[in-house]
Amino acid sequence: SKVNSTDYNTQWVTPSGADNLGNHTATTDLAMGGNSITSTNNITATGTATLGGNAYPTTKGTSGQVLTTDGAGTLAWGSSSGGGGATLQLSVSKTVGQTLAIGSSTTLPGLIIFESANGAGAALTNGNTWNTTGTDYKFTVGASGTGLYLVDLELISSVGTAANPMIDMNGGGNAATSFYGIGLQGALTNQPPHVARGQLQKVIYMTAGEYFVIRGGSTSNAGGAVLTSNGTTRLKVVKLN
Prior knowledge:
Layout: E1 2-3, E2 10-11, E3 48-51, E4 54-57, E5 66-69, E6 75-78, E7 87-93, E8 98-100, E9 110-111, E10 129-133, E11 136-140, E12 147-157, E13 163-169, E14 179-180, E15 182-185, H1 192-195, E16 196-206, E17 211-218, E18 225-227, E19 234-239
Antiparallel strand pairs: 1-2, 3-4, 5-6, 7-19, 8-18, 9-17, 10-11, 11-17, 12-16, 12-19, 13-14, 13-17, 15-16
């Protein structure tokens, strides 16, 4: 209502123009009574933004994080747990020759050393490590690295004696937890990679702290297997999830 300027009587009028809400500080919740807020450029919240019963964080999070939910309407920034595709963790090869001992029923196959640096396109993630101290060349799963791993191993011999490859899990040696490949021998007139080779491909579920080393032994009890040093003897590890 207002008082007119003619006879000073009070009368009801319809308001015109717009109210500048920016001039006001609310002391209670703004109840829209089922109506919408439209034609807005930005809505800024400093606490929690609740939409459709879901409470969204108003912080920025960090690079690479995703929104996660507790299933009860609360969302938060967190790390992705899989679904990002396979990643090449390790790609190494031998650059120095190594002769594996003759086959023996009493001796554990020897450790194989891979001297090269981690190859192009490979990167250790999730805290995974590749230890190259001394002769203890081992791949260890990091704190957030639990998952499926593909281990691809090729042992190429420069002479006619093949090598039997082995993935020694957690230092167990010749145990049921380790994995064993096949040594193949061809005609001596073939090119070196086809003369004698050992092959082993295995998908392994590994948890944080678990590790493996690579071992190999000659398929002959008369002569050792001489591994190549030109990069054809190699090890690759792929994290599948």
